[in-house]
Design a protein that fits this description.
Layout lengths: L13 E9 L2 E11 L4 E8 L2 E7 L3 E7 L7 E8 L2 E8 L3 E12 L2 E13 L7 E8 L4 E2 L10 E3 L4 E8 L63 E10 L3 E9 L13 E6 L2 E6 L2 E6 L8 E4 L31
Antiparallel strand pairs: 1-2, 3-4, 4-5, 5-6, 7-8, 8-9, 9-10, 11-13, 12-13, 13-14, 14-15, 16-17, 17-18, 18-19
């Protein structure tokens, strides 16, 4: 918890509780308390008599829990590795498949980095091991599957995995130009100095939509274009406990106009020997053996409709003359 100025007031604690029904109420039957002080739970999975818990503050501890005696659950094993997992799913009886974030320790600060896939071997339950890792992108990479399990499609029978990924490029950030829109703000009260150059200007101090007097900013600034390494779409992998991650390719679902945004969602699905990339804009199909070769496509065009309300122009000006608004004063 934190105080009013953002300083840590008390150290975080992580707990696991087992509940049982007694008559019409739920009561605590067993508990594990005080795990990983100062860290926070990122993901958990309970499978029969076994449980798995991931916490994070600087490195990723994976805890294995023995739940065979629900009144006396126990921590059995612990593994610390860089990064952290936000979703855990089983791979057979002795392996875990996870998705999360890689981490990077710079100047004493830990920051989230690329999208990280991991396979953990829990054959020795008291001594879990990291078997395989795949990292996509850097801190500019993101996936909805990090917080929405429905975006993570694991087809265990065929050892196939698909999930959405966005990579923003330019060192990981959004499309920010390397030079500022205005070179020099040396005038009084923030006025633009005579050395200022508007975005897209060739040096004659007359940007598009602006003036040439050196003191008036442009009216319209051309925003930077989408970087060449930007990607939005579906990544497809073959995953096995022994072989790890084999990248089968990716399907772009970026809007055709090249914009950053457009799709409400992106999902990958498998039917037979094909993978389907589905978005709010349509569906693309490709063979699993050649993911980047689209063999069929269906678009979802926007529906045609007549807008019944034309905005404020539909109302005569006189209709607003009698409107009074009283605001409470506190």
């Amino acid at each position: 918890s934190f105080n009013r100025v953002g300083q840590t007031a008390s150290e975080s604690k992580n707990n696991v509780y087992v509940l049982e029904q007694v008559d019409d109420a739920l009561t605590i039957a067993g508990r594990i308390e005080g795990l990983a002080p100062g860290e926070s739970i990122q993901s958990a999975r309970f499978i029969g008599e076994r449980g798995f818990l991931v916490t994070f503050v600087q490195i990723d501890p994976l805890f294995t829990l023995d739940l065979s005696d629900p009144r006396n659950p126990q921590v059995v094993g612990e593994l610390k590795v860089p990064g952290f997992s936000t979703f855990i799913t089983p791979m057979g009886d002795n392996h875990l498949l996870t998705i999360g974030r890689d981490t990077n320790d710079e100047f004493g600060f830990v920051r989230a980095d690329g999208v990280r896939l991991s396979i953990f071997d829990v054959t020795d339950f008291a001594n879990p091991q990291l078997a395989h890792v795949e990292v996509i992108g850097t801190n500019g990479a993101f996936s909805e599957a990090l917080f929405n399990p429905k975006a993570f499609t694991y087809f265990a029978e065929r050892n196939l995995l698909a999930f959405p990924v966005e990579i923003y490029g330019l060192g990981g950030g959004f499309g920010i130009p390397t030079e500022p829109f205005f070179d020099d703000f040396d005038g009084e009260d923030g006025a633009v100095g005579e050395d200022s150059v508007a975005a897209g200007d060739e040096g004659d101090n007359k940007g598009e939509g602006g003036t040439d007097d050196g003191g008036v900013p442009v009216d319209v600034i051309d925003l930077p274009s989408v970087p060449s390494d930007f990607f939005s779409g579906i990544y497809v992998y073959e995953v096995t406990p022994d072989g790890g991650f084999a990248n089968l390719g990716r399907i772009s679902t970026q809007p055709e106009d090249g914009s950053f945004y457009g799709n409400t969602f992106s999902r990958g699905a498998f039917i037979g020997d094909f993978v389907y990339a589905t978005t709010s804009e349509g569906v693309q199909a490709a063979p699993v053996g050649n993911v980047e070769s689209i063999v069929s496509k269906v678009d979802f065009p926007a529906p045609d409709f007549e807008q019944e309300f034309g905005g404020l122009d539909d109302f005569p000006v006189d209709s607003f003359d009698s409107v009074d608004v009283d605001l409470p004063i506190e």
